[in-house]
Amino acid sequence: MRIRNRDRILVLLALCIIATGCSRDPNVRKQKYLESGQRYFKKGKYAEAVIQFGNAIQADPGFADAHYELGRAYVKLQQWTPAYQEYSRAIELEPEDYSARLDLANLLIAAHQFQDAQVQTDFLLEKRPDRPEVHTTAASLFTLEEKLDSAMSEMQKAITLAPDRWESYLTLASLQLRSQQPDRAELNFRRAVELNPNGTAPRLALATYFQSQGRLLEAEQQITYALKVDSKDPEIAAALVRVYMAQGKKQAAEQLLKQTKQEFRENPVGYRLLGDFYFADRDYENASKEYATLYREHPKDLVVKKNYIQLLIMENRLEEASKLDEEILKTAPHDEQALIYRGQIQVHQGSAKDGIQTLQNAISNDPDNGAAYYNLGVAFQQAKKFIQAEDSWQKAARLRPDMSEAYVALAQSAMRDGNMEELEQAATSIINLLPDSPAGYAMRALSFTRRGQLSSAERDASKAITLAPHAPDGYMQMGNLKIAQRKYGEAESFYEQTLDRDPGSGDALSSLANAYLAQGQTDKAISRVQAQIAKMPSSTLYDLLGTFAFDHRRTKLDLAVAKDSLEKSLQLDKKNFDACLKLSQVQAAEGQIDEAIVTSQRALQQDPQQIPFYVLIGRLYESKGNWDQAKQSYERALEVDPENPQASNNLAYALARTGGNLDIALSLAQTARRSMPNSPNVADTLGWVFYERGAYTSAIDSFLEALKLTDTTGSIENPTVHFHLALAYEKTGQNGLARRHLERVLKLAPNYPEADDVRRLISQLQG
Asked: pLDDT tens for residues 534-593?
């Protein structure tokens, strides 16, 4: 039967109506968008998947599956806030959606929002205790909360539910290793390998374990096998390089990476490994050459370009670095990494203020950028704003718990402040992040030594040596431990071994010399420093020689040696401000006050932020009786750092001494006292301000506190404090006490500058 034209039109029209009806059905449309998004997701096209899942939600805002899938896509794009919102919406629409709850729990754990994560985890443990991944998530939460026993218990449950999952054994083994159960950990590492004998991940994990135990040959065997299984993964070659370096086989490591570079000419991870190896080995010269070559060969590789910029900054080739960085910012003005580099360049150029502004701009673009906060801390440190620096590093560590640099900065800050508890915390974080590095163990050993926990210190120092027998870290701390035990001969041996591995280490040489000094061998200490300089002359070591010669001077010849050594130090590094400061002090000790002032002023021309020079210049002017110039110098120091305790103290004393504003003097003295509560000098200054204000009882209390602090801190007894206390006692009518302290002044310093006034006052009090 033939269909007439009119009938054909009617049929087609009917079909169109049916099709249109289907396309308008929101249930059909949302499902099509969902399936389309899932196809994009499987192909790794997450941005396209986001669009399709969004279309599905537009068709049906209550479509729980689409919200969940959209959350997963946002996670892949590292857009954490919208991911959290979509997971939460999916759960709101479908409370029994266990997959959404599981993914949300893991997201919250990664963000360190432990309380919220606990809510989701508890729900899952109650409703789906039969799912091994639920127990794995619970273990992750307990691990980050440092509840290792609970974490191991959850992983045991996960293994019981799914005994063939090799990943679970790796997780349990890692937890056992952190819990000081290496034997049990090894069994589970090996079990993971048994379950997945041709997998590279379990073998690399076992190799890492062997390396942490110093079993380097076994580690090498595991990685070599993994390399045979998968010769196309450059990360395996990188693991083998780490073992070679631990064995001291630097040449073999370098050769392997040169070969790897040839084999992975088109693989960015592979061809970057050699440059990264040089960088990790602190061979910045070769790293820079390698990245210069890579930049020529792969000019469109933005990672190569950025790494090259970083190396140029480290080499102080700031103009070249800035040119390349500005090229990036020209096309991408909000590129956070490029902004960070700009900030680093400004800091290296001495423009800490500009660097702070640039890095704060980077943070305003990306408030969760841990690297930006870390570098902001460096900028604050250069600006002598140490509290802000530490705060920035704390934020960097919170945002990037994997950033070892932030914990190293915090550890160094703790060492500078003498806070050994904070040093232990930072060092432990470094150990957790870099278990194969000796640095964290060495830092923690120092914190234990300083607090008298010597067995713990020895354990960590030994671990540092085991991990890196060719590195100096562990030997240095073992030397410090032996000093604490008064085993000077053993300490000398460990410091010598440190110097064998790092001939330019000023810390090791200084500690070795101090070991000799502790035994009364001053000449041997100085001659040992001179011998090391003969092996490896450097600004640092000449600075050290000058310091020892000055601090332990007995004759004018020692002053000459100190001066000559410090001048040589500055010839090698004109920006060695420590040597410059000490040279000024040596010149002052020789009576060359004007020359000392000029030396300090030259240092400030190079870096106006160097507060110690302002303070020293102020003291030198004080010694000349030029109080106006002294006050100006202290004021300049406080312009750089308004809270600087030393400048605050000295300016307060100068104001009180010269009839200045006593309200300002009191505020400055109190600022200094808050920062330096154990300083006898600061307590004396506060007392003198009280004295000038007529508050004699408060003055007496402060002077007595100064004497008490002199005794408790082992400081040299200062006759001026006794003189001030005598004056205050005289004002309150306590003449007997006043006379006693005046007599103490003359006993301590018969040639005291104001000795005539002291004798006259004694005579008056006797009369």
From this structure: 999 999 999 999 998 888 877 667 888 899 999 999 999 998 999 999 999 999 999 999
Which amino acid, 723? F
Q: What is the pLDDT of residues 274-305, one digit of tens each?
A: 888 888 777 888 888 888 888 888 888 898 99
Residue 155 is encoded by which pair of tokens?
A: 């992983």
C-alpha 331/C-alpha 356 separation (Å) is 23
Q: What is the DSSP letter of 472?
A: S
Describe the chain by its helix, strand, coil percentages, rounded to 5: 80, 0, 20
Q: For 717, left (φ over 0), alpha (ψ -120 to 50), or beta? A: beta
Token couple for 44: 């790794």
| Dist CA 156 CA 757 (whole Å) | 82
Residue 641 three-state SS: coil
* Residues 1, 319: Cα–Cα separation, whole Å: 86
Q: How far is CA 712 from CA 184, 568, 678, 699, 708, in A?
A: 50, 38, 9, 20, 6
Check if the beta carbon of residue 250 is closer than 8 Å to that of residue 256: no
Give pLDDT tens digits for 606-624: 888 899 999 999 999 999 9
Q: Which residue has the tokens 């502790």?
A: 518
Cα gap 371→628, rounded to integer Å: 45
Spatial separation of the C-alpha atoms in residues 504 and 500, rounded to whole Å: 9
Residue pair 470/253 in contact (Cβ under 8 Å)? The answer is no
Q: Please, what's the b/e burial string for 539-571 (b: 16 or more CB within 10 A of its CB; e: otherwise)?
A: bbbbbbbbbbbbeebeeeebbebbbebbbbbbe
Report pTM: 0.62
CA-nearest of 587, 580, 497 to 539 is 580
Tell me whether residue 579 is exposed, middle or buried, using C-beta atoms within 10 angstroms of its C-beta: 0 to 12, 13 to 18, 19 or more: buried
DSSP letter string, 59-77: H-TT-HHHHHHHHHHHHHT
